[in-house]
Amino acid sequence: MGVGLTEYLTVAAVVFAIGFVGVLVRKNTLVIYMCLELMLVASTIAFVAFSRFNGTMEGNVFVFFILTVAAAEVAVGLAIIVALFRRRQTVQVEELNALKN
Amino acid sequence: MADILFHLFAFLTIGSSVAVVYNHNAVNSALAFLVGLIGVSGLFVLLDSFLLAVLMVLVYAGAVVALFLFIIMLLDMQGGERKPFSKATAVAALIGAALLTVCTMTLIRKFGGLETAEMGSILPVGANLKHYADLLFTTYLLPVQVVGFLLLIAMLGVIVLSKKFAGLEDVK
User: I need a surface site. Which of A47, A100, B33, B107 has the fewest CB within 10 A?
Assistant: First the structure.
């Protein structure tokens, strides 16, 4: 028995979980953003694996759109982070507490 | 051979994902993310999606990680002196993620039917460029247009966000 769908899905689930942990624990906004990207990449692994083992194209095409949306998201998100840094001189989440209290 | 390569790339992907979360230095995190993307595109090659593997390297490794590194160096936060995370949150998040993984895997095993055929017996449709073009220009023509519009709006948004506005008081 070679490597099947379950193995690929396990890799995707583990990478997604690691990205999830990163979003929860890290304090640097840029690294949190990188972990978000990690979660997106994990979902693409699952899409491509399902598509391959189903013999269909839809998953592969959907990964196209995920890639595009991720690129747009990174551009806008990093612009927001730079604007935030210009205003507050920090990107650490524990210091960005203007909405607290 | 493919099994060995799968384990190699899976180990590379998971190991560098852990490194992204664990590294104290943001530049190291970005470079670990880069290595992880190489692993993911290796997995795509094993799944016969050659175009997506190339796109992954071009778009993610070429554009996204380069942008991340550029911003990290622009904001000049090599980090190091402050702790990247506190222990209590780390433990809580680990437990949460472990639960998430276990739930996913239980669902996968329970609603099984994951006894799929061997990879060799299924036609690798993703390996053929013609199939992408066929779908993108017929069935998914409207989403392609919408995504193009989204990119335009993102570009406009970045320009507006990067502009300096006079008379905008600080929140603090």
Answer: A100
